Amino acid sequence: MKYRTVICVMLAVVGVALACSVITDRDEQAVPATAQPVATMVPPELRDVEIQTEPIEYSWEEAGDSATEASTHTEEPRPLSLSERILRSDVIARARLTSVAPSSWWYYYGQRKAYAPAVAFTFDMKEALYGSPGETVVVGLLLSKPWENNVPAAPYKTEAKALEVSRVWNETRRVTDWDERDTIIFLSLASNVSESWKDGVPSTVQYVFVSERSIGGNARMSEDEYTIHSTKNQVWLPAVSVGEAGSQTFYLDDPKIVNLPATKSLVDLKADITTETAKVDSSIPGHKECLLAKEQDERDGRPTYPPAFWSQVDVSIPSGSPTNTPLMGERSRAKDGYPTHFLEGPDSDWFTTKQSDTDTNALNGFSHSYYTTRPLPARVYEFHTNIQKHRMKPCNYIPPYRVKWLVKVESPEGTLHELFFDPVTVGPATAADSTNGVLKPTSFTDANGASVSIEGISYESSSVKVKVSPYTGLTGHRLYFIELDGTVSLSLQVDEATVDAANGTLRWAVEEQPWHDGDKLMVRIREAR
Prior knowledge:
Blueprint: H1 16-29, E1 57-62, H2 65-70, H3 82-88, E2 91-109, E3 112-130, E4 136-142, E5 147-148, E6 151-152, H4 159-172, E7 182-189, E8 205-209, E9 236-238, E10 249-251, E11 263-265, H5 266-277, H6 287-299, E12 309-318, E13 331-333, E14 340-344, E15 351-356, E16 366-372, E17 379-388, E18 402-410, E19 415-422, E20 424-426, E21 429-433, E22 438-440, E23 443-445, E24 451-460, E25 463-469, E26 477-482, E27 488-493, E28 498-500, E29 505-509, E30 521-527
Parallel strand pairs: 4-8, 12-18
Antiparallel strand pairs: 1-12, 2-3, 2-7, 3-4, 5-6, 7-8, 7-9, 10-11, 13-16, 14-17, 15-16, 17-18, 19-22, 19-30, 20-21, 21-24, 23-24, 24-25, 25-29, 26-27, 26-30, 28-29
Helix pairs in contact: 3-5, 3-6
């Protein structure tokens, strides 16, 4: 079977800024009207509580030694893997270069037309491994602009100048080592180039070489990205030998740089292509883009932080702060859909995450932060957060890196002890003890260094009863019962209590029941003042 020839063209760097702005506008218009803000893990009774706006002390630190030492994260992104190149391609073919010609693309630079040098490659298509190219196709490579004294040169005003630059590049800089060999090429449709280039692409151009961003209407490329010599994106895999061998093998690494370059047979390449393309579920919108985002995330090296902690955030807040106290100022997000947040770890029940937006369009910005779910007694709390970005939802990919939060809750001066108090109904009383409801932590050290334990708190016979061992452990202090909104609903002076030494209880006459079954309170025991 014969195929038409393919010609490839790449984009010049000069168009990047214009491309970004146009794409941003288009993406904002494409948001579905049904999009809604996400508020995960927020109990209904907490959503209307007023948020505290006082500044909170916090710091962002790298994870501990075990995570840092094992990290392989680098600033420069890694080259595209073979699987990612396959997924990004609209066409993969075994081909032979037949000609190279100067070309140019135009775009609007401000209010006038400017030209960028390009090169048109013509390939004789030997065999289509994926997609349906013709026998003869034009594929364009748009060149990066030259630099003069570390300052980018002005755009070319004439097509003739752009063509001259293209001719010189082809004669002096283009890698010609593999011109006479069969090669595997990875191509993306030229229709995926940046919006600002749409009108200026020659009508003969059908494909560009695959790049990291050649999917979704945003191809930006440079001359580094078309040959086995590329450090970023090897989309030109030449055959090991020049001849037409019955079973060809192709280079995966640059044989001039790598002492023992990896190679792969045509049979194995075909198997890889079948495996990778089968991963895409075309019935799910955005599934392919989600898989590509996953590949890019893994290529960046972030998931290499065992035990899956990426960073650590240290936060300090006052004890007894009201429900929905933010752990840090709201962080503004934009240019992406609403993500899903996951909270895990030993103390995740005491925290939540919320997003807020003034409209239903995530692309024009929204805010997000983490909050407390109730007033917290003093100690250090730990929870972990993970984020599934909007683009990761179609293929249900959750990155395996997390943020470890350490929240230091500090009590006011003179505090002896603080604890959770969640009453339940026990017979005629509303109470909490070790087996009924929540009363923790019950044990602490008194002002003299002796061990004290609160064994129960209840309301019965028009009085509040606290069972404590020893019964003298709270002498000289006052008990404050703090509600979800941070207010003190009841205050009891210990030295004014009726003492039952035999039963180890303290009683105060309180006519109206101060709490009910299912309430969530915090108790502070502080020096009487």
